[in-house]
Amino acid sequence: xxxxxxxxxxxxxxxxxxxxxxxxxxxxxxxxxxxxxxxxxxxxxxxxxxxxxxxxxxxxxxxxxxxxxxxxxxxxxxxxxxxxxxxxxxxxxxxxx
Length: 97
Fold this sequence. Notes:
- The protein is of the alpha+beta class and 97 residues long.
- It has one domain.
- The chain is built from 3 helices and 7 strands, in the order βαββαββββα.
- The chain has helices at residues 4-12, 37-46, 90-95, and strands at 2-3, 17-24, 27-31, 50-51, 60-66, 69-76, 79-86.
- The strands form 2 sheets. A 5-stranded antiparallel sheet has the order 3-2-5-6-7, covered by helices on one side.
- Strand 5 (60-66) and strand 6 (69-76) form a beta hairpin.
């Protein structure tokens, strides 16, 4: 079992979070762009639940936008996890064409 709030805090530790959108079943938990302390507390309190991130069907979906990139949710072979993407530099993008 995993706590969604603790997992969010661990995966975003030392990062600047711009906004986030996480879904579990019909429930959607949103941390809006330009959020304040009250928005963050409400978002984290709503994420304070246990779920099974082991083998079986995926329970959490979503994306977290960071200053340096983004994190999105994946499921592989019945196990769920967050995947971190670093925003590429303009130089990298221009040289890769």
